[in-house]
Amino acid sequence: MSDETTQNMDGGRSFEERVFARFDALDSTLTDLNSRLQVLEAKAYDTKPIWERALREILETRRELSKRLDRIEAIAHETRADLRDAEDRIERLESKSS
Predict the structure, then answer these.
(1) Hey, is 75 helix, strand or coil?
(2) Which residues lie closer than 8 Å to 72 by C-beta, 6 or more apart?
(3) Distance between CA atoms of 70 and 78, rounded to whole angstroms?
(4) Rounded CA separation 88/34 (Å)
(5) Distance between CA 75 and CA 89 in Å, rounded?
(6) What is the pLDDT of residue 41?
(7) In sequence order, which residues have a C-beta less than 8 Å from that of residue 21 and are 6 or more positions away?
């Protein structure tokens, strides 16, 4: 090893100056993060009405679909009843002809 002294890597600043510089850097980073977070929160609030409208439309679609399915079910029941009536009439006609 050489007898040369190690160069001062911190530019001759005192410990306190280096600590305060780090605090300033952290404070700057936190301020930047806070402003970025505020922008993201503002965007989230902007999309809230869109999301609420989408949910409302989904609910309305679900209700309309439920009504349509109820109508289809009623028609199916009517068709079954009509088919039973037709089968009964056919049986009566066939029994008369025998």
Answers:
(1) helix
(2) none
(3) 12
(4) 79
(5) 21
(6) 86
(7) 13
Q: Considering the entire predicted model, what is its pTM?
A: 0.46
The two structure tokens encoding residue 39: 């922008």
Distance CA 3, CA 21 (A): 31
Distance CA 76, CA 83 (A): 10
Structure tokens at 31: 């301020």
pLDDT greater than 70 at residue 2: no
Asked whether 51 and 43 are in contact (CB, 8 A), the reply is no
The residue written with tokens 């160069």 in the block is 7
Alpha-carbon distance of 34 to 40, in angstroms, equals 10
